[in-house]
Each structure stands twice: as C-alpha cells, then as structure tokens.
Amino acid sequence: MAGSATNSAIEVAYWFIHRADKENSHIEDKKLQHLLFLSQVHYALAHNMELLMPSLFICGENGFFEPNLNIMFEQGRPYMPPKKLSDKVEDFLGKVWKRYATLSEKELTLMIKSNPSYQNCYIKGSLNIAQLKAVVENFVKNPNTTYSTNHATPNKKVSYSQNGPVVVSKWSPRKVSVKNN
C-alpha cells in the first residue's frame, strides 16, 4: 500500500479549522469529523484508493470518526499553527470545503448515516473500524446518498423530532369541493 498525501489527520483537521476561521465561522467537532471522513473517501475515489491521511475511521452512533482526534479534542482544541500542505491537497480540500461546509452538522450526519456503508458497519453499542475499500464501493454504488442531502425536492426538508429525522413539507390546505345539497 502506498503512503498518504498528508502526514496526519491533525494537519487536515487544522486546515478545516483555519479555513473556517478565515470565513469567520466556527466548525463543530462532529462536523469536523464528518469533513475528515468525507475527505478521506473522496480522495480515495479520486486517486485510485490512495489515502489522504494515514487514519482509520471508527463507525459509531453519530457516523464515522477519527478516534485519535476525537480524544485530542475532548478537552478543547490545542493550538496548532497552520501547516503548508501540497498544492494538490490544498486544492482538493478546498473542493471538499466548498461542497460540504454549507451543510449543517445534522445534515452531514443524516447524509452519512443514510449511506449503506454506515448501515453495514454500525452495530449499536460497539465501535467498528470502517474498511475504506468497502466504504468507497458503497459510495460509488449509492451516489444519491453520498453526494446530496435530498435537495431534489425543494419544498421538503429534513428536521429532527424526538424520534429522529422526519421529512417536513410546506403546508398546503386540502381542496374542498362545493356540492349542492
């Protein structure tokens, strides 16, 4: 197996954190984990199964996460100055950012959890290592759950109730026909 395009997931995580700071926004830890996972998958798709970062992702209740970063960020984010990545990696991460940064953490979670790769890997109460090859194959087979959040129907959106995600649509009154009695 070849190496990876970066030295660690920390470099990629801090690229996203600094990018969010540049745009005067904050990126939640769960959303950051989703962006890292999607970056790894998209990089493998685009570069013949090469790794973006030398990381394993764990399948848990909220999607896939990089366990080392998860532990590192539990007590807050330590300071790390920006590290220059290769132009190829910077361009790639810019595309991932452009595609997914506007989505909320909930939308990313729903998108990832709706993909068969998550459904095949997740077992309640356990943490399983995601096999990148299987994840990439599922993403190729199921592009609708991979790359979109069902924006195809403009009047419908997904909200969360106490029971989980639900599809919400604009209310429209029923038509009543007037009959002469």
What does this structure look like?
The chain has 181 residues and is mainly α. 46% of the residues lie in helices and 11% in strands. It contains 8 helices and 5 strands. It has helices at 9-22, 29-46, 67-73, 87-100, 105-113, 116-121, 132-141, 143-147; strands at 58-60, 63-65, 128-129, 156-161, 164-169. The strands form 2 sheets. It has a 3-stranded antiparallel beta sheet. A hairpin with a 2-residue loop joins strand 1 (58-60) and strand 2. The longest helix is centred in the N-terminal third of the chain and has 18 residues, at 29-46. Residues 145-155 have low confidence and may be disordered.
Walk me through the topology:
Blueprint: H1 9-22, H2 29-46, E1 58-60, E2 63-65, H3 67-73, H4 87-100, H5 105-113, H6 116-121, E3 128-129, H7 132-141, H8 143-147, E4 156-161, E5 164-169
Antiparallel strand pairs: 1-2, 1-3, 4-5
Helix pairs in contact: 1-2, 2-4, 2-7
